[in-house]
Structure formats: C-alpha cells, structure tokens
Amino acid sequence: EVQLVESGGGLVQPGGSLRLSCAASGFIIQHYTMNWVRQAPGKGPEWVSDISDGGDLTRYADSVKGRFTITRDNAKNWVYLYMNSLKPEDTAVYYCAASTYSLRSGRREDYIYWGQGTQATVSS
Q: Percent of the chain at pLDDT above 90?
C-alpha cells in the first residue's frame, strides 16, 4: 500500500554529483515533513536533511550543508536530494522517510514511513 522508492544512486568520483529521487505512493507527501537519512558502512544511520510539508523550510546536517539540496514536488508526490561536491564519506545507503515534523533523527522507528534505500558510492 504505502511505498517510498528511492532511486538515483550509483558510483561517482569525489567532487561529482548525484540526484536521488524518492517516489511516494499510498500516501500524500504534502501532509508530511520529508527526510533523507543515510547509513554509511560500519556506522549507524544519520539524518541528512528534511523539508517541510509545503517546501518552505529545509534543514541539513552540518556534514552536508552547502553541498546537498532537498526539494519536493508535491504535485508529483516525489522528493529529491541533489548531492554536489561529493566526498568519499558521503558513501552510504540513502533512505527517504516521512515524519510529522522535523526530527533530525536517524532511527527508523521515529518515522511514519521509510523507504528501501539507494546506494551512493563516492570513490576514485
């Protein structure tokens, strides 16, 4: 019924860019804060970014601020994460998730909906 399907991951060189997409179905994202959370190899999940229901407010983890941009298209029920100036430490599985408000949490249990993830690898 409810799905968040991430795509756009892949292998990119340091300094490169990727655009991650999150296609939502079974619920209307307009009513939710939308989030990106990532989990790097050997590390716990870390909150990356969120965007308010109307798209007016965005927040970023310090580690990605200035390099990543989160957007949403409520008409299409999609969310995006534009990742620029990528670093090897950005290598992770990236998850799209929905919450009632900004939580800045990396824990699955803190979210209403959570996707299956897409792998982004930054390597020379």
A: 99
Distance separating alpha carbons of residues 123 and 15, to the nearest angstrom: 10
- 């950005």: which residue's tokens? 90
How far apart are alpha carbons 83 and 27 in whole angstroms? 26
Question: Contact 39/107 with Cβ under 8 angstroms?
Answer: no
- pLDDT score, position 70: 98
Closest CA relative to residue 43, chosen from 105, 104, 92, 100: 92
Write down the pLDDT at residue 59.
98
HEC profile for the chain? CCEEEEECCEEECCCCCEEEEEEEECCCHHHCEEEEEEECCCCCEEEEEEECCCCCCEEECCCCCCCEEEEEECCCCEEEEEECCCCHHHCEEEEEEEECCCCCCCCHHHCCEECCCEEEEECC
* Mean pLDDT score, 47-58: 97
* Angstrom distance (rounded) from CA 69 to CA 79: 11
